[in-house]
Every structure is written in C-alpha cells, then in structure tokens.
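Deviations from the work plan: none for this task. Representative record:
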Amino acid sequence: MNKVIRGKVHKFGRDIDTDVIIPARYLTTFDPLELGRHCFADLDESFATRVSEGDIIVAGENFGCGSSREHAPIAIKGAGISAVVAESFARIFLRNSINIGLTVVEAPGITNFVEDGDEIEIDLENGKIRNLTRDREMNFQPLPSFLKQIIDAGGLIEFAKERLKTR
Amino acid sequence: MGKTISEKIFEKHLIEGNPVAGEFVLARVDLVLMNDITAPPAIEAFYKIGVESVFDRSKIALVPDHFTPNKDIESAMQVKMMRDFAKEQGIEHFFELGRGGVEHALLPEKGLTLPGMLIVGADSHTCTYGAVNAFATGVGSTDAAYAMALGELWFKVPETIRVNLKGRINPWITGKDIILYLIGKIGVDGARYKALEFGGELIKDLSLDSRFTIANMAIEAGAKAGIFEPDSILEEWARSFEPEPNLVYPDSDATYSEIIEIDVTEIDLQVAFPHLPSNTRNVSEINEKIFIDQVFIGSCTNGRIEDLRIAASILKGKKVAPNVRLIIIPATQEIYRQALKEGLIDIFIEAGAAVGTPTCGPCLGGHHGILAKGERALSTSNRNFVGRMGHKESEVYLSGPSVAAASAITGYIASPSEVL
C-alpha cells in the first residue's frame, strides 16, 4: 500500500449509494475496467472520462450505503481512483474496499476542508491530509490495527493465505 | 455486565478476540450465502485463496435469483459459473430455477436459518434472518470467499440499539410500516455499524412474515443486523426444523447504545418518497394525487404469503387502473403454490395484474419490469435510490402491500380505505 497518496479531488454529497456508484444493469461482469467505465453513470455520465489515474473521491456521510455489491469499490478502483475519503462509510462498503485493496479514509470534517478539483495529499501512516491547493492540513484517525493486518497483507485473499498457514 | 443478543451469539462462535461491543473478533460461521451477482466474484476469489474445497458443503447456500430466469447471455454465464462450482464442490444447497426463489424468503422456508446462528451472506439484505433470532449480516464477495474457504470471518462486534415495540397495530399496518417509520425517525445511517435489537410487548402480535420485513430493512438504517428477541411464535416455528432451538435472549442488564420506544398505535400507513427509504410520510397526510405508472408487489421485503393475502383482499373483484401496470411476484415456489391453492393468483389475474415467476427482478432494475424515463413506480421492495428500478429519471416510492394494492386500483398513491 502507498503510504502517501496524492491526487485531484472529485467531490460528492452524502448517502452516496452503491446503486449510483454502479447501477445493477452493469452487474453482469466483474471486470474492473469495464465496471470503471460505468462508474457513477446515473449521477454524472462524464465521471469515468474526467477521472485521471490516481484521482481521489471526497464525500459526505454514509458513503457506499445500500447493496453489498463489491462491484462498487471495484468500479471506483477500475475508474482509476486511488482513494476515497469520506465523513463516514457504510459498513459493507468499508469492508469490501479494505478486502480488495481500495484505500478508504474516514475523516470527519473533510467536506469543509476540500473543494471539487483541489489537489490533496493523504499521509496514511501519520493520519494527515494536506490540501495543496489551499495550503492547509487536517488530521484523521488511522484505521484500527486489526484492519491494518488485512491491508498490510495485501487484502483479504492474501490474509486468508497467511491465516491458513497458522491454523 | 449483561450481554445483548449479538454479543451472546459472537461469544458462542468465538475463535479469537473479546466478544464485546467495539472489539474485533474472528468467529465461526454457520452459513454462507451468495447469489448470482455476488457468487461469481466470490468463486474467483475462492480459487485465489487456493484451498481444495469449501469448509463444509452443507453450510453454503447458492441462490440464483437476481437475474433469473437468466435475462441475457452474461447473466446466464454467471449462473452457469455458480452451478458448475456447486457441482464441483458438492454444495448441498444450490437452488436451481424452479426449485427456489428469492434468497431471503427461501432460506428460512428451508430451515437453513435458525435461532442462534451466525450467518453471513454476500447480499446486504442477509440481515433478514434476524427475524428468527440469528445474527445475520451482509458482506461482500471476497468476504464470502474467505468464509467459504475457512468457515470463519472477522467482525467488529457491534453496539446495539434496542427497539421496544408496544401498543396495538392499526388496520392494514404491517411490518413494512413499522420499519419505514423507524427509518424515517433515525435516518438511513441512524444505526450505522450497529445492531438493532427488537423486543417489547408487541412482538407477540407480530407475524413472522412481518418480522422478516422489519429485519430485512435494518440495513436501510445502516444497521449490521436487525435481530428479534425470541418468543413462542418463533419457538414453534423453529421446532418444525430442530427439536431443541437455540433461542438467544438478551440479559436484562445488557448494555445498549440507545433505547428507542415505539408505540405502534401511533403508526399510520407509510410511504417513502424518492430517493431515500428515510424520506417517509403518512399516507393520510399526502394531499396531492401522486399518479403512478407501475406497482410492484414482491421482493425479499414483501413477497411472502401474508403480503399476497393482503394484496388479494384488496384487489378481489376490483380492476387495476387503466394507466397502471401491476406486477406481482411471489418470492418463492412454495409461496407461489400456496397462493395458487388459496385462489390469490386468480384474483390477481382477474384484476389485471401480471404475475411473475419468483425472482428479484424489478426490485433492482434487473429485468421483469424496468422503468422508462420519467416513469413513477410504487414498490413494496426496499430501496428507492436514483435509478434503482430503471432509468435515472424514473422515481420509486416504497410502501407495504396494502397501500400498493390500493394504489394499483386508484392509479395514484392511496390508502386501502379509498377503495374498500
């Protein structure tokens, strides 16, 4: 996992559900690039074409609510997004992201800290977000150490392989 | 220190960790569920983990229900992948088309979800099984793969919000109105990361079908689980599957993050307006006529026999409004057959409804009734997000079966009293 992530912000509101992240009509595949092309299709048709590799999503409360479709974080990753920073996450989306290796950062206060199009830098190790456009910095609580084990292993599949050796 | 139902179930399934709210644990699972959307990525992840076989072929359920009968070649390929995997691994509970139905109505019917179990499913509405006193929660496909391979999973033991239901249920009110009322009160993230624990004096008057509806939509408040305290109705139901049900009661001094008291006497018929399930209103307080193009009665929320009986009691001898399409889908083959026996299907067809074979179909805008641009639907399902049932400029309103049936007759959102 990259310890420092830098990218341009695409800003969303609160209660962004997994149906708008990737509508059900695209769930006949789980190919990341194909899903990425339809990411946010019903909310913002131009999203997939506007994203540059490494961009960052910033959103309000309860990001990823609704359906458990893992296709949602896969689509976001497939679109080229490097991390999602939100005021808070819906729990299944948070699990899925950690499991597949999409960086997620819960940072209360983030929506007042950045605007759409800002350039930000996330320091995962030290729990800091720097807004490079507006030259300011905020802190966040890094993920609990239990979840770091999964992330450091490289996702849940790798964690499973390690776990099988120790059982 | 007393324990909640959730803490007790985690304690019984514990492998590692401390089973109290807020702590991370590894726990044994009793059942792993997947459907035709979530199983294919799970199967791929399972092979990557590299084990030869699943942890227990009697504890995995594979239910093709979302895009079945297969709507196109891609969905047929997904179900084929499930079917082949089930065969290869000797999975005992693969439910072929015609022998199954919508997962969350089907598995309880088959006695696969029982009190005291710890269940994970790659579907957010897995929380439905809380109705039968199981701790059941939705996960993703990689989680399901891990659980299939190892028979365990990591969890954060949730804090619990206790919901005490009391009072008397008004006519036509069902579990749907109670849960929509609660979601309207606490919001779509009101129980985020938490378990909802339902109890109180009213429980004894709530049918199991209504409890399934309530537990089903716990996720719509962001909850990890929606779990009911056991009672004699549940015990009797569970005894039809096992001689000694493992009923789990909370301690009287259990620690709750919040206690919500609901007097259902005050609950009117509910409708959730677009585009969030929390956007609820009393039907009696809707002043304008909200005309609709389509009504859907079905889904894992409201496709059970009680729902169909209610709909039939309203539709009997009446006709669906000329400008409305009414789609009714019994959630399982068993429910379909029961409805046939009781003459309900006859009433539906006589009224001008389309009756479909069990599938999730229109609920998630999959097939079997997709909305066109600018169309408006009233649905007994669980979500009314943007584009959920079709075009991004279509609208979904949510209600229970009585309002749905009455509205199909009037052509606008209406209470049953307007047509009876």
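The interface with chain B takes residues 15, 17, 19-20, 23-25, 27-30, 41-43, 61-62, 65-71, 74, 88, 90-92, 95-96, 99-100, 144, 146-147, 150, 155-157, 159-161, 163-164, 167 of chain A (CB under 8 Å).
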